[in-house]
Amino acid sequence: MPKARVFIKTYGCTMNQSDSEVMAGVLLADGMKLASGPDKADAIILNTCTVKGATEQKIMHEIRRLVAARKKLVIAGCIPEADLGLIRKYAPRAPIVGTRSLTHVAEAVKAAMRGRRIEFFDKEEEKLGLPRLRGSIIAKVPIAEGCLGACSFCATKIARGALRSYPEDAIVAEVGKCVKKGCKEIQLTAQDTGAYGKENGTNLARLLHRIDAIPGDFRVRVGMMNPEHALSMLPDLLAAFRSPKIYKFIHIPVQSGNDAVLKDMRRNYSVKDFEKVMRAFRKEFPEITVATDIIVGYPTESAAAFEDTLRLLGKIRFDIVNVSKFTPRPFTHAAKLKQLPNSEVKRRSEITSALCRKISLEKNGKMIGKPFRVLVTERQKKGFSGRTDSYKQVALGSAKPGGSVAVKITGAAPGYLLSQPTRGRPAGPRKNR
Fold it and tell me: Is CATH 3.80.30.20 the classification given to domain 138-365?
């Protein structure tokens, strides 16, 4: 049988993107080829996400469409882990690859080609060191699987399970290998990077110090961390972030500006705890880019609690806010609660999103006229884009991925900056260590 051509479509977070890189690597190691699009593929893998109801609905619509078109289909990712019945309802013959079963993906594709149903749900899988297909500039490096939380609204915990931190030595070796291969941006990813090592006596700050000691010219983006874990190691974390190799960027989800709602969500921190972390980072790094997540319309969010969230947004003035309308996820505690009217959830979402866009635009507008050193990281449909030391995205014209350019900011949008090159030598790379 000729080797299959496979297209992988990925939904969701950086961890899912990292998993897709592994699946691509496993398929190539088996002799299969990667298709550039679904129409050119013999089989299609959907790497699914269960975080948001809207995303899940989009995925299920795609599954129904592909099944109706008689496409050979493999379902991977979080949805089959969290709600296998939903997948079996709409794709009864599709092979399944769980989040800890990536090494079985070639077997799953072969089963799909033969029209045979098969399921892979392993309990453990060490993803570092597996075959992987990644871009030449950005490397997504997983540092842990699962989390320590028990949030009332989250189905990802059902899919990904309890925290399992990868060994420090293995992570450091993986980052070092990526740097030697020419990667310039290392994205450390996990469900909660702040929880890293909590179950085995280490922590994220120590890991960052070890990564900082790796020789080479590269930068590290630290993925999402929850406030209580950042607070527990705050002095050491700030010290680690002082390295010029670490982007001055943090993604710390607050979810709500009201303590009662946070308690109902089973979040393990208060608004004051969150604000303490924000003050510390901004005092140490005034230009830091801060991202957060907000859920509006949680079942116990009163009108007053919603106003508390708006006040917090106005007070902290985040650079990036991921606003989510609450949607009940299957098998979670919050799904059992009396839900707010959809119209009210939508109204709150529109108000929140408008406020966040306004703040982001105002903050980015203050960058106009300033010079920056930008690491060129991605090719876009028109031109390129790169990142400042504080991880601000900058649109570029002609550029060389992996190179560094000196620019002046000429315009701003809520999500990115416009630029023009400045005369003279581009800002040089930081010293290798």
Answer: yes
